[in-house]
Amino acid sequence: MLYREGPDTLRVYFKDEATAFNAQKRGVIPGKGVVNNKVSAALFRYLEAHGIRTHFLEEVSEREMRVRRVEILPLEVILRFRAAGSFARRYGLGEGTPLKAPLLEFSLKNDALGDPLICENAVLALGLAGEEELETVKRTALRVGELLKAFFAERGLELVDFKLEFGRLGGEVLLADEISPDTMRLWDEKGEPLDKDRFRKDLGGVEEAYQEVLRRVLG
Ligand code: UDP
Fold it and tell me: Same domain, yes or no, for 180 and 102?
């Protein structure tokens, strides 16, 4: 949830409500909002320290952060290290099949259409992003992938895939939205998911998984 704070800043409030499968499945994961706020803040700080420009300004409470007001590009930018979820279903692959190289994909952010996959040519032809913007998005997503992969590996977690969103601000393209167990797949040493897949697939231990991610991110 977003609300306007000043002319150039927004406040993001992280809720415990969860949705999956384009909001066909709904529920509440107690404490999720706090985890996602703290995890996102920690990851934005880490990425900023490694040269990635983001919309993050500061945490203002357990569930709120202050961010720069940007114009969000209508794209979900997904980077995959293994086949999982919709990608595995699309190509008939087993969950977790390794990929030869990190794979970057784009979806159009449009709930009514179910966030369809979109190719780079269509992104340009529809004017969703300019050529330079698209290059920045691609370069940044790949670099974020390297940085996050290493960050989680140090904490005994495998980053399987994740989704990013970007926004325009005064001729610049910044990393925006959130980076949390809601927007990535993370597996522990035993290959157990510690992310929203526990909710999507009714695996149980959902709250505990989110708390474990927070513990490892902060620890
Ligand atoms: N993802 C997301 N929001 C979306 C769709 C996907 O944050 O609207 C994340 C998802 O959690 C996963 C990655 O992007 O980490 C790839 O998701 P996928 O395309 O496999 O779709 P899903 O199976 O999650 O619907």
Answer: yes
Query: What sign results for the dihedral spanned by CA atoms 141, 164, 43, 83?
Result: negative
Q: Tell me how many helices (H) and strands (E) the chain has.
A: 6, 13
The reply to whether 219 falls in a domain is no
In single-letter form, the type of residue at position 85 comes to: G
Model confidence over 80-92: pLDDT tens digits? 999 999 999 999 9
| pLDDT score of 120 | 98
One domain for residues 120 and 41:
no
CA–chain centroid gap for 34, Å, is 16
- What is the value of pTM for the model shown? 0.96
Residue 40 has pLDDT above 80, yes or no: yes
Number of domains composing the chain: 2
Cα(179) to centroid(ligand 1), Å: 12
DSSP 205: -
Nearest atom in ligand 1 to the alpha carbon of residue 163 is: 14
Ligand 1: residues within 6 Å at CB?
Answer: 76, 78, 84-87, 115, 161-163, 183-185, 196
The ligand 1 atom at the shortest distance from the C-alpha of residue 184 is 15
Assign 6 a pLDDT band (cuts: 50, 70, 90).
Answer: confident
Domain extent for 59: 2-68
| Whether residues 107 and 120 fall in one domain | yes
